[in-house]
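Intended use. Records like the one below are meant for learning the mapping from a protein sequence to its folded structure. Do not use them to infer anything beyond what is encoded.
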Amino acid sequence: MSPNDSLRNGPERDPALLYEGGDIDRLHDVVTERLAPHRLTVLNGRRPNGRFRCLHEGEVMLYELGYGTDVTVCPGELGDFYNVQLPMSGAGVVTVDGVVLPSTRSIVGPGSRVSMTWNGEARNRILIIPGQAVAQALEVRRADSSTAAVRFDPVLDEQDPLIRSWIELVRGFHEFVASPLSHRSPLGVRHFEQLLIDGLLDAQRHCQSDALTDSGSAALLPAVRRAKAFCEEHVHEPVSVADIALAARTSLRSLREGFRVHLNTTPLAYLRQLRLDHAHRDLLAIADGRADGTVTDVACRWGFTHLGRFSAVYRQTFGQTPSETLRRSC
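Structure written out for the chain above:
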């Protein structure tokens, strides 16, 4: 390794840096280890100046890669994962199953054969999604399982507003995982990863798109179940409707539609009812001598900071005020 080459080792290094330098064999080895075996050919005599960074390791993987010289990359037939190429600079050509794509902004999945040519200025953001993760997301939506891999249309058309939004989501994911919050919120990272997978299934045409569309309101039911479970688990926390949608792995619009169709309520109304039920239980425990506290204590514990509103909605639900529950005879 030459003095100008860098590997990720030492506190002074970029923590995301896996390799930087001109040793093309070493760069090939590091990329192979992280992504997939492939044949790498340098197309000109210029010494490479490659740079390979890992931006995120998790359910999905996010990388940035540039070779710093003109190259051809031939992974051949892909294994059980999806490779999403999102160019940031430079130019190239991507060929999938013998067909040259009109754009290098692409997604290639299990069983497809791919080759890529990149010029020296090319730098790509690469998202790697395990095939099993996509299969599981699809299984939840269809309430059944399938052994066949999902085949996406390979070109990500940024003229499509759905694809544009999804690509922005990837950029947002990069910013999030680079922030201190991601280290404090592993659950948030997992939710974001799942949002990327579900968003891709919604935005990009694939071999089962029609089946998902035809399923109608039934497709919303798994998301409603996930939302209910999240509300029950986090009933004591300050949860927003956006938090519920993220946990349910669906859009806000679909979440609201699912609650309307299947529960005849809204997500926040459902969460409020859960909290009222807990408050009612606690007041009964105090009335029976099994616990101590006041109406104010109970209301604040379950997120009701306006006592007047709490009393009104409690009476509407249970037919008596919180104070009346508290004074009931044992």
